[in-house]
Amino acid sequence: MKATRDWFGDALVDVAADHENVLVVNCDLASATKTTRFKQTFPERFFEIGIAEANAIGVAAGLAQEGYRPFIASFGHFLTGKFLEIFQSVGLNNAGVVLVGTHAGLAIGKDGPTQMGLRDLALMRSLPNVEVLQPADGVETRAMLAYAVTHDRPIYLRLCRQPQREVHDQDYQFRPGHPDVVSHGTEVAVVTMGAMVPVVLDAVELLAPTGLRPTVVNASSLPLDVPATGDLLRQYRHVLVFEDHFIRGGLIDEIGRIVLGLDRHIRFHAWGVDDYGQAGSPEELYERYELDAPGVASRIRAVTGANTPEIGGSKQ
Amino acid sequence: MTASITYLDALPPDRHPNLVDDGFELPYRLSRIAQLSNDVRAHLLKMIHLAGSGHVGSSLSCVDLVSVLKFDQMDASGKDVFVLSKGHAAPTWYAALMVAGELDPAEIGTLRRIDSRLQGHPDRTRLDLVAVSTGALGQGLSVALGRAQARRLRGADSFVYCLVGDGELQEGQMWEALMYAGARGLANVVLIVDYNRSQNDGTLEEIMPLHPLPEKLRSFHWHVQEVNGHSHLAIRDAVANARENWMQPSVIIAHTRKGYLGPGQILLNGSHSGALTPEVYEDAISYLGQVSV
């Protein structure tokens, strides 16, 4: 059981050994974003900017313009909070920066909403040349890093804090924009990403006695391949999305647009966080916002059993 | 205004190894810069006149700074980088590129027009003769520092020049960048402040004074010079002097006038982005003399 930020820290050192252009730009969060090993291994390729994310984003953009592949790592909330800098210095420059936003979603726990990455996907999805990647486990984290160092376009890599089990086999192949079916079922497709993937798989296990067996789709990179995703989802009567993110602007919007564009009627249901978030232990928060396995299972059963469309938010 | 302008003692002709030594003596170089900067003014005025809008005052105030860099001090083979952080002066850079023969003057009427390469603020995704996309203020220096850091990492022998407005120094990110460059001793960076003391809503002093700017910059471990930003000789010497300092990043506070056309000639009373009427435009062009645009 390891968090994707831990897998990232290890995998980054591995890819950096083969790719000398990989650099790290840090904002006083090396221990939290797991770049300390990189710093120890490649000190001359590690740039400490301090608690100054705006400048760090600009410096990373400049390094990228010179042919380097800088990874700037910080809490996703702090990094994407400097949206104007990302928009202009990275986006409008088409600078090949990998923005690494850690501590996605509610899992920051007791530190509360000022540190919680609940709107980062909404911001990053709005930039037309930025690819968003969120791995579900260690295998996918390594695959995504191997992919990220092979080209020079801007990327937002969303990583999670909570340790989780592996969901992919070692031979898993990452295909950008491709919806990855991690569990096969019928009638119902559940789409999710990141640390929610094992949670949804657990929820499917909880549903086994009811006879309901949803397909689970890991939509780990955005924008999604629209035809491929549409072809997959059109086989189901219900499409559900669960995400550890604000209910607007993230994966829900991405999937909703694709489902809406299909030539057949599919019931669409979505669940995420609909307020600013709050402090609490991660377990309490996921239970409270119904984004833990029992919450997801009961949502799936409610919307598919009752056969009524529901676009909901968290309970208040 | 005049009393605050200081001019450092003349320095020896530059010894920058990157510069192509064309063998010309200083008086010839200065008269050449003067002619080219005049051409830049005429080009940018025509550009803004045809566009029907643009930041005339801010573009004119930095013409001499850009001209000295582009036509005399920056490496002629293209090794150096120029970042126009005060992106609203984009017409100055476009005009300098046209005068240098790098941008087709046929594009002069496309400024601020749809699908144009000459966006209202520099956009690298549309024109690769722009080093860095800028416009939202305060970001250019950070990107310049990244490029300087990369060049130092590679051991490349080149300089990164960054031009900012004085009002732009009110942005917090500027001070993050100033702190970083000073702390890391990024000596291959030359920052030029277009100190025209005027911003959108009024004077610098009215809106948010920077005084004492040289002391603030020195305390951030920058090598500080102040010059008359319309004296080609003074700018030239300061830039050459900045390159000689291998211990610190260098900043040149260039005292300029918004709307500066030439000695005693200030266009539109130095306004930030006033409209160029046909009369004002014709008068300015006639002042600048016969220029083949």
From TrEMBL, chain A:
Keywords: Thiamine pyrophosphate
Pfam family, one: Transket_pyr
Keyword Glycoprotein: no
Annotated ranges, domain Transketolase-like pyrimidine-binding: 2-166
Originating species: Micromonospora profundi
Cofactor: thiamine diphosphate
Record's keyword annotation contains ATP-binding: no
InterPro entries named in the record: PDH/Transketolase, THDP-binding, Transketo_C/PFOR_II, Transketolase-like_Pyr-bd, Transketolase_C
GO molecular function, one term: magnesium ion binding
Stated name of the protein: Transketolase C-terminal domain-containing protein
Automatic annotation (TrEMBL), chain B:
Domain Transketolase N-terminal: 36-278
Cofactor: thiamine diphosphate
Residue ranges that the Swiss-Prot or TrEMBL entry lists as coiled coil: none
UniProt keyword list: Metal-binding, Thiamine pyrophosphate, Transferase
SUPFAM superfamilies: Thiamin diphosphate-binding fold (THDP-binding)
Pfam families xref list: Transketolase_N
GO molecular function, one term: transferase activity
The organism's place on the tree of life at top rank: Bacteria
UniProt entry tagged with the keyword NADP: no
InterPro entries for the chain: THDP-binding, Transketolase_CS, Transketolase_N
Family recorded in the similarity comment: Belongs to the transketolase family.
Protein name: Transketolase
Organism of derivation: Micromonospora profundi
